[in-house]
């Protein structure tokens, strides 16, 4: 049987998943409730920045990958339905599952036929969600036969900026399953990826995702706390110290070194919300997660740490240039932007002469935050010319050598990566 794949939610995860399965020869249908997003994708454009994915989209669009105009069409034609909708940070840091349950409710009336299907939760949900919330929720609306409807989860491990590479060449694939029939079908689906494939319990599948993200968050906060200590000790080349740390044979050449490096804190969509959600999940289970609590506390304090550095060198009327607005380079994602937090702290203390530039995110940052007294310029050099104090917040490669061109300016490197004149 040729498996038909349906995808609900066409953000970073959903669109990459759709195109990844198309690449492996599966017929995929994607649906997003956002009409503007559907239209953008239908016209062959990405609704976000993701290097290389636009070429893949245009190759498969209208062939192996189709855009559905209704949830009904997507569900009815699919053997396996992936849910890739957002699970943002909700009240008290808990994962907000309303969009996931809404997507489920939209299709349940459609799939109560004789066709066997698997519903796969790819959205990031706290451990216990599929078993304790999703399955009981579905059963309140349909007392389904498990030979006709199977439920699984399949966490994603995609990095923004490298989504396609991570999906097509995964280092591991994890599926939370309940029975052998589900395992067999998902094995058929993922065999073409030729990657380690692990079938685990539903709770284990969800836990592995949070285990991954909270480890990365912890490494970042550890690195940032150590950078604060270095600052207090004084006369420490913090960036160089960490680069030498990476030469340890246990770390050398490891991609995880990108997370064992100081900066101004983690932002974006995943790490902040997932760390908060895991901490709240632990509290709901009766355990106070001391390490995660401190990881969050350290991260929350990093914008203030750098804002104080800026205020120590600049008066409220000093022209200040902000270089980088997205939460990471090669991305236009400004959610939980550390730049926004730093700018807000400056504005609160009366700083009103601010200039900003990001290679991808000027417009989206302004649209999301609407901050006063910030003038968005069209290039990094324009910001360097306008500002007396220059603050590098995002490690875009084009910022790396700017200090060599503008040596007379006061530089605050929140990412410990710019090249300084005479530096070894």
Top keywords for this entry?
alpha/beta, 16 helices, 43% helix, Rossmann fold
Distance between the termini: 61 Å
Question: How would you name the CATH homologous superfamily of the largest domain?
Answer: NAD(P)-binding Rossmann-like Domain
Tell me the helix content: 40-55%
Radius of gyration: 23 Å
Enumerate the spans where pLDDT stays under 50 for 5 or more consecutive residues: none
Order of strands, widest sheet: 3-2-1-4-5-6
* Overall shape: globular
At CATH level 2, the architecture of the largest domain is 3-Layer(aba) Sandwich
Residue-averaged pLDDT: 96
Domain count: the total is 2
Strand content: 5-15%
What is the number of strand segments?
A: 13
Figure out the total of helices. Answer: 16
> Under the CATH scheme, which class of the largest domain?
Alpha Beta
Can you walk through the features of this model?
Helices cover 43% and strands 13% of the residues. With 424 residues, the protein is of the alpha/beta class. Strand 5, helix 6 and strand 6 form a beta-alpha-beta unit. The protein folds into two domains: 197 residues, Rossmann fold (3-Layer(aba) Sandwich), CATH 3.40.50; 177 residues, NAD(P)-binding Rossmann-like Domain (Rossmann fold, 3-Layer(aba) Sandwich), CATH 3.40.50.720. The strands form three sheets. A six-stranded parallel sheet has the order 3-2-1-4-5-6, sandwiched between helices. Strands 11-10-9-12-13 form a five-stranded parallel sheet, sandwiched between helices. The N and C termini lie far apart (61 Å). The longest helix is centred in the middle third of the chain and has 32 residues.
